[in-house]
Amino acid sequence: MGERVDLWAEIIESEEEGGDRVKDIPKVEVYQRRKKLEKSSEAADLIGAWSVKGTRTSLINAPKRDSWTRSLSTRGRESIAVGAYVNNQPQEKPARRKKPAIPKGKAVKAPDFKKEKEYFHEVDAFELLEESPSPKTKNSSTWTAGEQVVPELPHLSTRLEKWLISKNLNRPCGPSSTLSKILEYSNSTTRLEPICDDDAFDSLALRTPENSSSSNTSIFRLIQSCDDDLNAEDVPFRKIKTEEIDLEDELKRLSLTSDLISPHLDFEKSFCDLLSACGQMQPSSFMEALSKFCEPESIVKIGEGTYGEAFRAGTSVCKIVPIDGDFRVNGEIQKRADELLEEVILSWTLNQLRECETEAQNSCLTFIKTQDIKVCQGPYDPILIKAWEDWDAKHGSENDHPDFPEKQCYVMFVLEHGGKDLESFVLLNFDEARSLLVQVMAGLAVAEAAFEFEHRDLHWGNILLSRNNSSTQHFILEGKQVFIKTFGIQISIIDFTLSRINTGEKILFLDLTSDPYLFKGPKGDKQSETYRKMKAVTEDCWEGHFAQTNVLWLIYLVDLVLTKKSFERSSKDERELRSLKKRMEKYKSAKEAVSDPFFSDMLIFQIS
Ligand SMILES: Nc1ncnc2c1ncn2[C@@H]1O[C@H](COP(=O)(O)OP(=O)(O)OP(=O)(O)O)[C@@H](O)[C@H]1O
Description:
It comes from Eutrema salsugineum (Saltwater cress). The chain is of the alpha+beta class. Helices cover about 30% and strands about 15% of the residues. A five-stranded antiparallel sheet has the order 4-5-6-8-7. A hairpin with a 4-residue loop joins strand 4 (about 300-305) and strand 5 (about 310-315).
């Protein structure tokens, strides 16, 4: 147990002595959209304020990713709570910065903040002045949620947050429940309804624009259950519930152990939500998590990205992404729990497309299957380090050697093995090339129809291919059953970091305006040009739905097949590809492209 401290005394002391220091801390903005960071200036300042740990490099002196290829780093995933908006029209291109419409046919109820306001007034009145008489709260923040504005940030949370941030303390999630419960209250902008029903997580993972109701906005505020009989690990989602909090009691127990305190209230909440979304009460060790999928000794590294290291574990692939650390990894600021939470939700949402029930309106197998997601903690296991070093010796890693401290946290995505990426996959003939194009196009069309999905980063590293014995694949697009000729090729789309989706509850997207470097890739390079075209199409309104971005990536793909992939083909085949590309330029969505004559003899519509 850590040393006992008097929390209020420390808060007061830090506000009195360290006024400047507190001022230097980034202001806590609750439930507001994240401020954009210019990579060069503001981000650098922010990074400078953090402690940056020296990183070891790989064995082979491979070139590290340059700033352009590393450009994902400053992106902050943002989301819009669908329920907060009232525009119920089908989505057209919205005006710049206008909030997008919610899915069709959903009644929207504006959140009721009255109760919270009353509640916080009560909290403020609750002898806080008596307990902490001197310092004044200088900055009162503004909460925004949809169109609602609640102009008072509760006194309690403001001061606690500042103090905690200034302490930069560690935050093991589980035991700090006393504080996190209070934070939960302080940060909440939605009704404090219990979410102890069995469907709490189902509603998070399985809601679609078609079946969602606007009432369940509280699903992102899961609090861990403290039931003693729950196994700490792998708690089923239905066991997650809210607790009734006796605030008076909590305040009386505000003398906390210093090693159980979060550095950031919102951060703590995100981390807890992330754990909840992964069905955990606390992070697992790597071995605990990995041993469910394979003999740990058999683990081999198979690939790497800017953020993720991919390992084969049995028949699955584990992509490990470090999070929340205060030092850079591979030259990049580590992603935060809230960003990963969104990627987790996005992955589970896309998984729903794999369910091919009779009443399904949209279904396909094109997006990689997410089998499990776990939060892990600890340094890299020696087995993983060996696998990393073996790969480095063979391929020369662009990433840093994985030296992580005891408290490092990660998200581990357990995915189906999707095969080889398009960059290295050898297409044998025109039929295989057509199969690639039609499957990507149909998959995007299905995801557009189901979730207004846009991938936004469909370069050849994010399309995996494998061969199998089947000749067709089943899709359902807006209720229509379609069989697609595959010529024995199976496509899997991965990496949803930049993707935009409407889950029915929320619109999840990444504000790419915060990453100007993404649009500064080399002139004439197809991938860089595609980012620039996306920017033109969206007019930097990244939260909006512009299915045309999917078409831009399809055009990129046709270009790539024509210019970068060599396979057996005739000049007629090339002509067909070129005219497909031309026609594509007129389409506004992948759904429109389905009816292109290029694909007609590959699609077999089932007449019901
Ligand atoms: N399910 C999978 N099956 C096979 N290989 C995979 C799978 N997932 C990832 N990989 C391999 O790992 C590499 C890195 O994965 P991914 O692109 O998802 O990581 P990332 O860090 O998000 O990348 P980026 O740099 O684009 O952000 C891929 O290019 C691929 O080679």
